[in-house]
Specification:
Chain A: Part of the ABC transporter complex PotABCD involved in spermidine/putrescine import. Responsible for energy coupling to the transport system. The complex is a heterodimer of chains A (377) and B (282). In chain A, 25% of the residues lie in helices and 34% in strands. By secondary structure, chain A is an alpha+beta fold. Chain A has a 6-stranded mixed sheet with strand order 6-7-8-3-9-10, with helices on both faces. In chain A, strands 13-12-11-14-20 form a 5-stranded antiparallel sheet. Chain A has a 5-stranded antiparallel sheet with strand order 15-19-16-17-18, with no helix packed on it. The chains are: A alpha+beta (377), B mainly alpha (282).
């Protein structure tokens, strides 16, 4: 649909012995909202800094609109960045902050005024120009940072966990707003986050990364519905990942039983990872279940109950609106489209068991950790 | 709140050693030798105008030189690695551990007409060379007992007080802010002019305060390095308390006037520092 704008070609980033980026190949289309998603230290921030010009890859090339830009310094790139902690100029008022780039470009005063006002209006801060940076809330400061970048009409806007410091409610509002701004100005956004929900909400394309490698590239639906390996399945949403065997096309075996599924193209008898999303499982009376297990834990989550069920020592997470007693025997029913079959990967067996359920959930609910990717720099 | 009692020793300390002496000076300044209230101590202030002028001119000169040396030093130091910083900080602080008078005496023997510097220069035949080239009759550089020597003494003694606050402010500037400026199109010179310098002004201001105030009230320096030829405020005040001219009432009055002038200067400067609009235009 649109042309390629940025290409990372075989990019490697190494600090001493640590490999931060491991032979990354990626192209980014014009006008797309692309998210680099991954846990702390996966290299996503480093990738953004390479595109921004703040770091040079150890080897490999960066192309912008077809031209190699490895050696172009940040101030000469047609790229602007929104930093994680805003990095506003505290010695200037809001207007001057936003006008900074235009003043450097020696924009005529009347055009400068008009464009700054436009940018402030775009981020819903019209009339805030005379205020000082410190008088604004975190969310407002972040808007100023966005306006300050966008006013220069860059071809690409880089956003480094821009919502990380905001509280949950504000974060959700800003997600929608960011998407609106991106569509309104019609430029490429490259967005870095470790928050999978943020990525799913806003992106056209998600790049899932771990340990310096790209794990999967795809639309939010692809990534969620068709994860490529256990890491992606676990990182995006909640997943039960079970060892299975592909008996034949459309038939998968686990727990010694055969299940109908929609996947094909595996060798007969090939060991696979079976992903079952917690919301795709129905709890039924024991007698009607395809599998039976014991409920070990129930947590009320508002919309649904998180029910942990023990199936022969392997614990599943089931999200359902039906309440089950702890200790009761239940059956489960899974429709064929509830199964997703993945080839075995180095991540097989590392994720998808909810035996340590509560600990894992707490971790996910923690706020963004402060030292995000600090080690990578 | 329950720990308020812990503050009592400090409050007492401040009252006894800060407030009380200040009040005493005010009382002395407004009384005569016979104990009656008077303004006569102030009415004769005009005759000491040269001392005021000298003190302020020399102190301002020393402060400006301290900025010119201290700022670049602090700036480049903040870009160095941990080791270089530590060593440099050590070297900057080291002279301060030596006694003030001792340091000043050292400068005397360096700057003297027959001092180390002149001896060295004549030893390597520098003066002979100059004399043959220009047909002059130079035997030494006259450095001691000049105003320049006083300023040198001030700069040497107070420079660390300029470097330290500037360094700590520049060091604390978030590197992301600098990256943001680069990102928005600023080259290194612009980053410095539009971001680093304005953000470091508070450090410069406190450096100026910490250099200017001791400079303007310094004594000893003018006697030791200036040969007593230039009467400075510090010496003038000292004379009123210890010298032949013994008159603590006049001494207090001069001290009070100096304090007021310094306070006004500082207030104006801080005002300037707060006016961020003005700074932004820089």
């Amino acid at each position: 649909m649109s042309k390629e704008l940025i290409r990372l070609s075989d990019c490697v980033m190494r600090f001493d012995e640590d490999v931060i980026l491991d032979h990354i190949n990626l192209y980014i289309n014009d006008k797309e909202f692309l998210t680099l998603l991954g846990p702390s230290g996966c290299g996503k921030t480093t990738m953004l800094r390479i595109i921004g010009g703040f770091q040079k890859p150890t080897s490999g090339d960066v192309f912008f609109d077809g031209a190699r830009i490895n050696d172009v310094p940040p101030h000469k790139r047609k790229v602007n960045t929104v930093f994680q902690k805003y990095a506003l100029f505290t010695h200037m008022n809001i207007f001057e902050n936003v006008a900074f780039g235009l003043r450097i470009a020696k924009t005529p005063e009347d055009e400068l005024r008009r464009r700054v006002e436009e940018a402030l209006t775009l981020v819903n801060l019209a009339g805030y120009g005379k205020r000082s940076v410190n008088s604004l809330s975190g969310g407002q400061q972040q808007r100023v940072a966005i306006a300050r970048a966008i006013v220069n009409r860059p071809q690409v806007l880089l956003l480094d966990e821009p919502l990380g410091a905001l509280d949950l409610k504000l974060r959700k509002d800003m997600q929608i707003e960011l998407k609106r701004i991106q569509q309104q100005v019609g430029i490429t956004f490259i967005y870095v986050t470790h928050d999978q929900e943020e990525a799913l909400t806003m992106s056209d394309t998600i790049v899932v990364m771990n340990q310096g490698k790209i794990q999967q590239i795809g639309t939010p639906e692809d990534i969620y519905n068709e994860p490529k390996n256990a890491f992606v399945a676990d990182f995006i949403g909640e997943s039960n990942i079970i060892d299975g065997v592909m008996h034949e096309d459309y038939v998968v075996g686990m727990y010694g039983r055969r299940f109908q599924c929609l996947d094909k193209g595996f060798a007969p008898g090939e060991p696979v990872d079976v992903v079952i999303r917690p919301e795709d499982i129905d709890i039924v009376p024991e007698a009607q279940g395809q599998l039976t297990g014991t409920v070990t834990e129930v947590t009320f989550k508002g919309v649904h109950y998180d029910t942990i069920v023990d199936f022969r020592g392997f614990k599943w997470l089931i999200q359902t609106t039906d309440y089950s007693e702890v200790g009761s025997r239940i059956g489960v029913k899974i429709d064929p489209d509830g199964f997703h079959i993945m080839k075995k990967s180095p991540y097989s067996g590392m994720f998808g068991d909810y035996s340590s359920y509560s600990a894992e959930y707490d971790e996910l609910n923690e706020g963004p950790d402060e030292g995000e990717d600090e080690d990578a720099e | 709140m329950r720990n308020r009692s812990l503050a009592i020793p400090y409050v007492v300390w401040m009252a006894v050693f800060v407030i009380a002496p200040l009040l005493l000076i005010v009382v002395y300044a407004f009384t005569a030798k016979d104990g009656g209230v008077t303004l006569s101590n102030f009415s004769n202030m005009g005759q000491y105008f040269p001392a005021f002028r000298h003190s302020f001119v020399l102190a301002v000169t020393a402060t400006v030189i301290c900025i010119l040396i201290g700022y670049p030093l602090a700036y480049f130091l903040s870009k160095e690695g941990v080791l270089v910083r530590k060593v440099a900080m050590m070297l900057i602080m080291l002279p301060m551990w030596m006694n003030f008078l001792l340091r000043t005496y050292a400068w005397m023997s360096l700057l003297d007409d027959n001092g180390l510097i002149n001896q060295f220069l004549s030893g390597i035949g520098f003066f002979r060379l100059i004399n043959t080239l220009f047909g002059t009759d130079l035997t030494c550089f006259h450095m001691i007992n000049t105003q320049g020597a006083i300023v040198l003494g001030m700069v040497y003694n107070f420079l660390p007080f300029m470097i330290m606050p500037i360094f700590s402010v520049i060091d604390k500037i978030d590197p992301k802010v600098i990256e943001a400026a680069q990102d928005l199109g600023a080259n290194s010179a612009m980053v410095f002019r539009k971001v680093i310098f304005p953000l470091s002004l508070p450090g410069v201001l406190s450096g100026v305060t910490m250099v200017f105030i001791p400079s303007v009230s310094t004594f000893a320096l003018s006697r030791l390095l200036g040969g007593g030829k230039t009467l400075l405020l510090g010496d003038l005040i000292e004379m009123q308390f210890l010298g032949n001219a013994y008159n603590p009432h006049l001494g207090s009055a001069i001290a009070l006037v100096m304090m007021v002038i310094v306070l006004v200067c500082m207030a104006v400067m801080n005002r300037f520092g707060e006016g961020e609009e003005g700074v932004a235009v820089l």
